[in-house]
Design a protein that fits this description.
The chain has 12 helices and 21 strands. By secondary structure, it is of the alpha/beta class. The protein folds into 2 domains: 159 residues, Lyase, Ornithine Decarboxylase, Chain A, domain 1, CATH 2.40.37.10; 256 residues, Alanine racemase (TIM Barrel, Alpha-Beta Barrel), CATH 3.20.20.10. Helix 5 crosses helix 6 and helix 8 runs parallel beside helix 9. The chain binds ligand LLP.
């Protein structure tokens, strides 16, 4: 997919660059991003909105993969940015991202984070709860400043995805509850607060969703709410943010729709609902993460040891694992891969790909068909662009990999590999009197 192909040497090539050259130049594990594919995905979302002639913002949910280069690219692509922490906001500031296109999410933003957002004059804060509503207002007033906000609503929609990444159901830590009247109370408070401008409402039902049903239900619930808010407070939102969560194809059996289809389906219902409620079309915002960067990322690993258990299984171990991709261990996520140096050879064996961490659960792929592989081979695992590097960790004191962007035969290193020295950068030695 994307610009990936097999070159004359039988090597996997991405963005016009030989993956084996990348592996030897930058080492492994290595995250390789196909920039052209990120561009294409952003364009698909934006074109879908343009075709509907609806005012919109596509915000990149930066939790999927954040670094300064990614934010520079997001700016160039005309994306807004959804950040969820002071760290992501700091990265955006350092990357020079336009602050008026930054949206700040999270169910427990700290006072410091809210102050930072007000200070940086970001586009809006997506307020999650009463505590935050109150604190944000206090911070704005004390600084004689101002902030635009959206209210995050728990839409009460069950998304059909893994429990841990489903967020729209009623029993959720996120957002103002729809059924118990919390939303109405929040609108009442926010709309009479001079330091806050209530732009609209937000809902996000979950992640890695294939069907449009959940999104359609969320739109319907949001419009019932909008009619209600209009009647009660004469409040009509100018922005309706429908969140992210559009699924991608990790393995052959996955059946996501083309990204434009999700947009089209949602807008269809929005238009219909707005017309029947006699309302102006709100600005529609979405915040995809995975569907913008997920399939653009490939991880290259060097293969090391093997274990053959007769009549049971063949294990192949790679030089990374749950330290650079937590998803299989956390969500039983599935991936596909090939030998990057022998990409044109037929699969004759079945290997289970183990990571190097001291955990039996550190398995990247079970039962992967491959040619007969050995320690000279490089394994490419596909679709690791979202929630791979961003959830990478130093378990077992394994340094985090390097990340490169490739496009049109050019390579840009965007995150350098962590060194052992980096690993002890924050460690402090005990003073001599403390070591008996
Ligand atoms: N907006 C909100 C409010 C979110 O909570 C999320 C994801 C997104 C947008 C972006 O969702 P996406 O388009 O990327 O599906 N670590 C998990 C995914 C957790 C998603 C959390 N929120 C994984 O690796 O599958």
């Amino acid at each position: 997919h994307g610009t990936s192909r097999i070159n004359e040497q039988g090597h996997l090539e991405i963005g016009g660059v030989d993956s084996i050259k990348l592996a030897s130049q930058y080492g492994t594990p290595l995250f390789v991003y196909d920039v052209a594919l990120i561009r294409e995905r952003a364009k698909q979302f934006q074109e879908a909105f343009k075709a509907e002639k609806v005012p919109f913002q596509v915000a990149y949910a930066s939790k999927a993969f954040s670094c300064m280069a990614m934010f520079q690219l997001a700016e160039e692509l005309g994306l807004s940015l959804d950040v969820v922490s002071g760290g992501e906001l700091y990265t955006a500031i350092e990357a020079g991202f336009p602050m008026d296109r930054v949206h700040f999410h999270g169910n427990n933003k700290s006072i410091e984070e809210l102050e930072m957002a007000v200070e940086a004059k970001i586009g809006c804060v997506v307020v999650d709860n009463f505590y935050e509503l109150n604190e944000l207002s206090r911070i704005c007033r004390s600084r004689k400043s101002h902030m635009s906000i959206l209210l995050r609503i728990t839409p009460g929609v069950e998304a059909h995805t893994h429990d841990y990444i489903s967020t729209g159901q009623e029993d959720s830590k996120f957002g103002f509850d729809l059924v118990s009247g919390q939303v109405h109370e929040a609108v009442r408070i926010a709309s009479k607060d001079d330091s806050l401008t209530l732009l609209g409402i937000h809902s996000h039902i979950g992640s890695q969703i294939f069907e449009t049903t959940g999104f359609v239900m969320a739109v319907e619930k949001m419009f019932d709410l909008i009619s209600d808010l209009k009647a009660q407070f004469d409040f009509v939102p100018t922005v309706l943010n429908l969140g992210g969560g559009f699924g991608i194809r990790y393995i052959e059996g996955d059946t996501p729709l083309p990204v434009g289809e999700y947009v089209h389906k949602m807008i269809e219902v929005v238009k219909d609902k707005a017309a029947s409620a006699n309302l102006n079309m709100p600005e529609i915002w979405i915040e995809p993460g995975r569907s913008l960067v997920g399939d653009a990322g490939t991880t290259l690993y060097s293969i090391g040891s093997q274990k053959h258990i007769p009549n049971v299984r063949d294990y192949l171990s790679v030089d990374g694992g749950m330290s650079d991709n937590l998803r299989p261990a956390l969500y039983q996520a599935e991936y596909e891969g090939v030998l990057a140096n022998r990409a044109n050879e037929e699969a004759t064996e079945t290997f289970s790909i183990a990571g190097k961490c001291c955990e039996s659960g550190d398995m990247l792929i079970w039962d992967l068909p491959l040619p007969k592989a050995n320690h000279e081979d490089v394994l490419a695992v596909f679709c690791t662009g979202a929630y791979g590097y961003s959830m990478a960790n130093n378990y077992n004191r394994i340094p985090r990999p390097a990340v490169v962007f490739v496009e049109d035969g050019q390579v840009f290193e965007v995150i350098t590999r962590e060194s052992y020295a980096d690993l002890i950068r924050l460690d402090l030695r005990l003073p001599s009197q403390a070591v008996k």
